[in-house]
Structure formats: C-alpha cells, structure tokens
Amino acid sequence: MSVLAAVEPIRTQVVRADQSDNREWLNEQPVCQLLTQHHIAHVGLMEAPQDFQMLRPDQSGTFMLACYEGSGMVLADGQWRQVSAGQACLLPPFVTNAMKTTGRMPWRMCWVRYLESRESNPIVSAGSPVLGSYDPQPLFHAISGLHAECAGLNTPANLHLWTELIHSYVLRFAQPHQADARLWKLWDAVEKSLDHPWTLEELAARACVCKEHLRRLCRDELGRSPMQHVTFLRMQRARHLLSTTDDKVESITRQIGYMNPHTFSNTFKKWIGWRPSEHRR
C-alpha cells in the first residue's frame, strides 16, 4: 500500500508498463508494454510540492530517483538522506520506501521503478551506490520522449529506442564500471564471505589502502561507509534467504555474520523496514 500526502497538487508525467496497477494517480497515464522487457513497472517525472510525503512499506522492485531541481529527503539504509539536483538515489526492492520535501521550493525528479520477484536477482549489485552524483538530463529527456511518443504516434521502433535508453541510463548508475579495481575485488570477496567478522582494518588491508582512504573511496563511489556497505550486503543476502529458503532465522543470522539473532533482527528492521519474522508472512 502506498500513502501519498501533499497540500498542493502533485504534478506527474508517467508511462506504465500495463494497466494492472489501478491506483488513481496511474489510471489515466499512457501504457508502453515494451517496458516489461526490462521488468520496469513505470517511469515518470514528478514535481513534488511543499509538504509532500510518500510512504510505500513493501516496494516490490528496485527504485531509482534522479533529481534535476530542488532537493528532498529519501529513506535509505534506515536513515533519511538528502537528494539534491545533480544526484541520484537507488533503493533495493522489498524495503520501506519513503520520500518527503523539506523546503518551500518544489522538488523535481525523474524515476524508474522496476518490478522484481523476491526470488530474482535485482539490478542492485554489490557495487551499486545508494546515493551519488548523476547527470539527470539524459534520463529526464528519455522519459519525456517516451511519454510524448506514447501520447502521440506510438511508433513501435521509437518506443523501443526510448525504452532501451531509459534502462541503460539506470544501469549507468546502478552498475557502474568501478574505476578502482581494488574496490570491485574487495566487495566481491566480502559478498562471498558474509559470515566472516569483517572489520574496517581488515577491509582496508584487503584493498591495500589505509582506513581513511577506503572511507573516502566508498563515500565517493557508493554513498556509504565501508562498514555500512558490509551491512547492506548482509541485509540483502538475508532478505534473499528469507524469501527463497526455509532456513530458520537463527541459521540465517549465522550465515550473514551475526552471532546474536536479536541484533540481526533489529538491524534488519532498521534497514528493511520490518523484522525477519514478518518478512515471510
């Protein structure tokens, strides 16, 4: 269930993949079935006014937001993060998604929302950032072009081109080519051994850099500290195991490197939005 609130009207331009979602704000929007080829549920442009708030408790797909004017706050990794013009935010599936405006100026953004099953591998990977610098103009124009084509001549060849561009612009942010191979190798090793009791000192030694340099690299490329990224990878693995296995919570706790199920449960609730026991209901 989504909860939207705003004193002033919310202005949107949306293209949806099909007509299965009958929420009021999507009802009159054009359809492009080619979006389903990339498991995209809908794309759009939004002008969020003052006092805008949105809460989606169980977002069933990766969500990317790119801001081209103003700023607002997004709930990511269990904390509120500011997203300003020239930045993008990437949220994994099946977590609580919340956004709100904080100032008097409108918050203008474009977004792409995927539809993924709990068993599938989302486009969010070990190297995906949560927040970072991003030029929103190519994505903005691609979504505008798709909307205009859907509302106009609706030519299949043009729909295909706009759809491919939108997906590629998301991947440009979600799956970047790591400029520093040391980071790629580090997170590949961590993801393969999440049960290991990783420390900042060991992560830095693995990457052959000092702790402060590793912090700077991770902040610049991922928008998280090194240990926050370890937690992110652990929570994503836990979510996947809860969705695809019958393993007990105690077993999953140990598989991802926690000794105390209570600590794991509290961390999972902070990052995902609910407790592990509630994930299977």
From TrEMBL:
Q: Name the keywords, alphabetized.
A: Cytoplasm, DNA-binding, Transcription, Transcription regulation
User: By its UniProt entry, which Gene3D superfamilies does this protein fall under?
Assistant: Homeodomain-like (1.10.10.60), Regulatory protein AraC (2.60.120.280)
- Record keyword Transcription regulation present: yes
Transcription regulation found in the keyword field? yes
Q: Which organism is it from?
A: Luteolibacter luteus
One Pfam entry name: AraC_binding
Q: Which residues form the HTH araC/xylS-type domain?
A: 184-281
The entry's protein name is AraC family transcriptional regulator
Kindly list the GO molecular function terms attached to this UniProt entry.
Answer: DNA-binding transcription factor activity; sequence-specific DNA binding
